[in-house]
């Protein structure tokens, strides 16, 4: 468990950013990951009074605040209206409901874990993230950047007509960290597919057919860890790609 000398509610995103520049301070969102560490912080910066827990719609995109919880993603009628069960599929295996009521979208994306169900699911949706200093940048760019001290405030998901989406993951046991995550979107016949939990970063592949994606996935590096060997992860990638492509075609995955 970590300890901290001060606890501050940021009164604006800029205030949070200023406080976060000091290396001994840190942003506290859900605190679910942070609590596993044993660091001594000077100041914990709480974002919960900035109104960042909303999911809002404009004509062209959905805008999600960084403090939206994983449970909100899972149960939002607005997300379900545009993406069906996609956000429920990518969140429902993460620990349990009480945990998902605390863990946040911002904490999940900012931490950029290689295993992240959330980053994998967002990557094929052409999202933008908003950072206090860097402004709006593509999630693909942010996901590839090393951890920095900017503060993530919002994520925008463009509303694309006729988009189809599908999400799959594998775990050794229910609620464990995933051994592989796979998410895909299809727009005008073009498929974007993200494979996460594969290496330290998620990969985004593009193709017109399942075979294009299978060939691209062959060239990726699959790392080994305590959960799975690289050879088995490579094998799982083929299976998950076939499953999401079957879902995109409107069929049932096996
Ligand atoms: C036991 C366990 C199992 C898990 N299993 C899964 C799983 O199966 N799939 C999955 O996808 N995830 C999993 N996770 C990760 C989890 O879903 C969250 O991603 C994680 O807890 C971070 O979210 P948080 O809101 O708790 O962030 P915190 O713990 O509060 O913060 C995490 C890090 O991000 C920084 N940070 C937080 N918010 C911001 C922000 N707005 N801007 C900039 N930096 C920020 C913090 O300073 C900290 O360094 C698991 C976590 C745990 C502890």
CATH topology of the largest domain: Uridine Diphospho-n-acetylenolpyruvylglucosamine Reductase, domain 3
Q: What's the helix count?
A: 10
Q: What is the CATH architecture term of the largest domain? A: 2-Layer Sandwich
Query: What are the bound molecules?
Result: flavin-adenine dinucleotide
What class do helices, strands and sheet pairing give? alpha+beta
Total strands: 12
Q: Tell me about the largest β-sheet.
A: 5 strands, antiparallel
Strand arrangement, major sheet: 4-5-8-6-7
As a percent range, the share of strand residues is: 25-35%
How far from one another are the termini? 42 Å
Helix amount: 25-40%
Tell me the name of the CATH class of the largest domain.
Alpha Beta
Low-confidence stretches: none
Q: Give the rounded overall mean pLDDT.
A: 94
Morphology: globular
What number of structural domains do the residues give?
3
How large, in whole angstroms, is the Cα Rg? Answer: 18 Å
Order of helices and strands: EHEEEEHHHHHHEEHEEEEEHH
Question: Describe it for me?
Answer:
The protein folds into three domains: 44 residues, no CATH class; 104 residues, Uridine Diphospho-n-acetylenolpyruvylglucosamine Reductase, domain 3 (2-Layer Sandwich); 85 residues, Enolase-like, domain 1, CATH 3.30.390. It contains ten helices and twelve strands. A hairpin with a 3-residue loop joins strand 4 and strand 5. It is globular and about 55 Å long. It starts with a strand and ends in a 6-residue tail after the last helix. The structure holds flavin-adenine dinucleotide. The site of flavin-adenine dinucleotide (FAD) has 29 residues, from strand 2, helix 6 and helix 7.
């Amino acid at each position: 468990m970590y300890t901290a000398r001060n606890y501050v509610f940021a009164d604006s995103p800029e205030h949070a950013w200023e406080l976060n520049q000091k290396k001994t301070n840190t942003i506290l969102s859900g605190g679910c990951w942070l609590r596993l560490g044993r660091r001594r912080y000077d100041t914990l910066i709480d974002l919960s009074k900035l109104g960042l827990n909303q999911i809002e719609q404009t004509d062209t995109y959905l805008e999600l605040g960084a403090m939206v919880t994983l449970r909100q993603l899972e149960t939002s009628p607005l997300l379900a209206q545009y993406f069906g069960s996609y956000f429920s599929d990518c969140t429902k295996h993460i620990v349990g409901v009480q945990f998902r009521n605390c863990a946040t979208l911002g904490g999940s994306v900012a931490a950029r874990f290689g295993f992240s169900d959330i980053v994998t699911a967002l990557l094929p949706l052409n999202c933008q993230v908003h950072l206090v200093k860097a402004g709006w940048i593509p999630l693909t760019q942010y996901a590839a950047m090393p951890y920095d001290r900017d503060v993530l405030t919002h994520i925008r998901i463009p509303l694309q007509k006729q988009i189809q989406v599908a999400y799959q993951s594998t775990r050794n046991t229910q609620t464990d960290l995933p051994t592989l995550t796979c998410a895909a979107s299809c727009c005008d016949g073009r498929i974007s597919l993200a494979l996460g939990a594969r290496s330290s970063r998620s990969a985004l592949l593009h193709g017109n057919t399942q075979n294009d994606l299978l060939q691209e996935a062959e060239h990726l590096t699959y790392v080994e860890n305590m959960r799975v060997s690289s050879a088995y992860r490579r094998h799982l990638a083929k299976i998950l790609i076939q499953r999401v492509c079957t879902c995109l075609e409107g069929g049932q995955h096996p």
